Amino acid sequence: MMKKILFVLASLAVLAGCHRNEPEDLNPAVDVTGSWELSAVTTRAMVGGEQVSVYLVFSASGSFDLYQKIGEGRYTHFTGTYSMNKDEKLLSGTYADGTKWGPYEAALEGTTLSLNLPGGKEVDSYKKIDAVPESVTGNVY
Amino acid sequence: MRNHRFFFIAASLAAILTSCRQDPLPSVVTVPGSARTKVVCLGDEWETSSFLVKLASRPSDVQLAELQQEGVLSVEPLFKSFSGKEDLERQFGLDRWFVVNLKEDASLDDAILRTASLEQVAVVEYNVLATKASDCKVYPAVEQYPTRATADKFNDPMLMDQWHYNNQGSKAYSTNIAKGADINVKDVWSGLSCGDPGIIVAVVDEGVKYDHPDLKDNMWVNPGETPNNGIDDDNNGYVDDVYGYNFNANGPISWSERYYDEQRRQWVGDSGHGTHCAGTIAAVNNNSRGVAGVAGGSGSKDGCRIMSCQIFSGAGGGTAKTVSNAIKYAADMGASIISCSYGYSSAFSSDNAYKRAVGTAEIDAIHYFEASDNNPVLDGNIAIFAAGNENHGYAHYPGAFYDIISVSSFGPDYLPAYYTNYGPGCNIAAPGGEYYHGVGEKSMVLSTVPKEIYGEDYGYMQGTSMACPHVSGVVALALSYAKQQGKTFSRDEFKRMILASVSDIDQRIGATKEKALSGYSSFSMAPYYHQMGTGAIDAWRLMMHIEGLPTLTSQIGREQWIDLSSAFGTASVSLTYLKVEVPESAVTSMGLQKVSPTNADKYPAVVDENGYAYVQFGRLYVHPTAIGSGKITITAVGGGDHVGGGNNPPGGMELTQSISLIAREADGGNGTGGWL
Question: N or C end of chain B: which has fewer CB within 10 A?
Fold first, then answer.
């Protein structure tokens, strides 16, 4: 009897091990967590003739920090929450004041994150960075 | 007789004052004694021959007689009672205010303290002097005459130089020009409203030159008064008040009394300040002359009307007594708006401090005005004040009072003017102009001035004094439009709508800008960020608020999508859309370029029949190229992917919603302004 029980347990362990060894999810969510710096844009390179500088931090807890500067002056700091639609790889979120943004089609290639508005009208590229520079976080309004 | 001196402020209070720039303290007499707490003063300059007293209750003859103390020449009611409004006067305590006139050799301070010690006295107020919210420098402008090149919506030939109404980015008005740094009124004039003679704006200021060729058709005329007969025909207490009244001289309106002060080496007296403000509000439009006014009509004698409530005349005026009476007159004679480009540079720690300390006669008069019902749209009236030109981090009073609209100033670069007050108490911003910008006076505000002073009928000025009448004009337009639409609002609701009808002014604020004051220098913009009120007044948005239409913002120069959730709710991205219609007026105003959806086979889209907009992914796509505004109509299905009914299978309901779209240089209206 004891041998039979051990066999069943051993079989379950093997089965469980087989499960873990199955091929990975064919459609995983893009992992956007970390810090990003806007590196390229297609249609929004200039806003009203002004240069744009944007840093994004997506935390694992679902919050984000956005530092942006348009033209001269200091950075503006925005906060809020974000979420990723795993099936469609759509990234969307809400600013702290309740204003929604996105969804963007998110794609990760190496250390470059692309956020595209569906339809290909606007494509923003961000490069991964270790952290938002202090010259940015310490220079906000 | 006047006195010039600074109040003593207790050392501890002064310490707080210097350490708390945005929470300043009042200039109140703080000497010991309970009676002295009744004494209030809001300026550092006042009349020495009179003061004001408010009694705690309606006085008996005995109590009135007690005011007649040593040194007192006479005691008289501050306000003239207006037949039919006695209840409202009592409600705001106007019947309890008195003016105490002193004998020539009497001590003002002694008389004030003796009066304050009387039990029946609630407030004793110094008869302080207000100042105009402008440097009163005028750069005359030679009148231009119509040419084919100047033809616009209106044929006023100098409208093209009024960048403050329609700023299309010409560097003739600033080397750092910002398209759209204006009040966005062009499209309001083009189809919504140009004014209404039933909406009267009282200019509480220097006298308005009522026979100015570009103002006379829009002057309010008292129907009950016969001009120049020396009789108070309508029995309102004022003789020959045909276009208003001179409350300082207690007589006819004047606008050109001035003299050259050799000691100060400058002109003193009338500067055309009131005439300039009046022209901004309602200079006659489309009359082939001079300038346009915000609510100056369409050329068919249909502009809003200007009432001149003169508080400054020659080198005098602006006392609390004069101002309070002028505001009450505006309330009693039918004004819906008072445009007040004056104030007091004294500072107050809070509204409560102000309320306790300040010229309550004036505040009582303002609240009486706002409670009076002079138009079919509101259950009251609207007072609008200049924020002041001291470059303080707070508005000056009385505009700083929490429930009174106070206007800060920006230049043609859409940046705060170097002189403007900002911070607490500043509710909204408007163009006030600013000398320099590499173009001299062209970057200031162009309006009407008295020819008697300057040899020309037009001139440039700058100040929050000039910003204030822009808001007054827009509010007059809004009341005109609401009246035309048969809409009604509460006064407080309307104030909220005014403050919500703005374009973002913060987006362009950078590190520094230049000013030309005692030479050229740069100054930091950081203190102004989020401190100029809710934003820059936007006439089109206010009209759309009145219509109840959602207003969305786009940026010129690129194709972009506009979120439709404010029109169709949060489900807007998943609705099925049937139609989008863009009228020609919107195409023209915003210079819309044709656009076409991409991947339409994969992602369904509906396209305007002329190709000027489409809806895809639940968003509106447009490509504006010019500063402008327009309405776009979108039809969707609510509850399914097709419309039900008839022979159709079960489906949803057709939803048609108009939206108002504004195209500006900086996209500052949708949401937070964040990049994502």
Answer: N
Please tell me the number of Cα atoms within 13 Å of B285 on its side-chain side: 30
**Class of the CATH-defined domain B141-544:** alpha beta
Q: What is the pLDDT of residues B611-667, one digit of tens each?
A: 999 998 888 999 998 888 899 999 998 766 777 666 766 667 888 889 999 888 754
Encode B261-277: b = buried (16+ Cβ within 10 Å), e = exposed.
Answer: eeeeeebebbbbbbbbb
* Highest mean pLDDT out of A45-49, B511-515, B616-620: B616-620
Q: Does the pTM exceed 0.90?
A: no
* Inter-chain CB proximity B563 and A48 less than 8 Å: no
Amino acid at B13: L
Residues 176-235 of chain B whose Cβ lies under 8 A from any Cβ of chain A: 178
Closest CA–CA distance from residue B598 to any residue of chain A (Å): 6
pLDDT in tens, B216-248: 999 999 999 999 999 999 999 999 999 999 999
Q: Give contacts of B570 with chain A, Cβ < 8 Å.
A: 100
Q: Measure CA B617 to chain center.
A: 41
Return the percent helix, strand and coil in chain B, to nearest 5: 25, 25, 50
Query: What domains can you pick out in chain A, each with its CATH number?
Result: 34-137 (2.40.128.270)
The answer regarding whether domain B550-664 maps to CATH 3.30.310 reads no
Closest CA to B209 of B541, B490, B456: B456
Residue B559, number of CB atoms within 10 A of its CB: 15
CA of A123: which chain B residue's CA is closest? B676
